[in-house]
Input
Amino acid sequence: QVQLVESGGGLVQPGGSLRLSCTASGFTFNSFRMYWVRQAPGKGLEWVSAINSGGDATYYADSLKGRFTISRDNAKKTLYLQMNSLKSEDTAVYYCNARRRAWGKDYEYWGQGTQVAVSS
Output
């Protein structure tokens, strides 16, 4: 059974930090590219960051560069998002997403999301 379980969300003051985790099971984690995607209240999905299967290439939305850091531990089958200098506009549900294309077929899995609220 494929599972992606996010954790680490919560309420934080502006300027604070949070570290999100996403633990995978039921598939070969180290073969998948991993993404963080968020959805702010009343808005659509927004891509936040991506990391390749080996963890040596990372990508960020331009607006988030320098504040967020994506990483992964393939031995622990876990994806991370370190979020610093948080702003109210970072308030959203954060989802982890796994993708792979193999043998002409696309594989994609989603977690259930973790809520991040930035407020004083």
Notes: DSSP finds no helices and eleven strands in the chain. The mean pLDDT is 96.
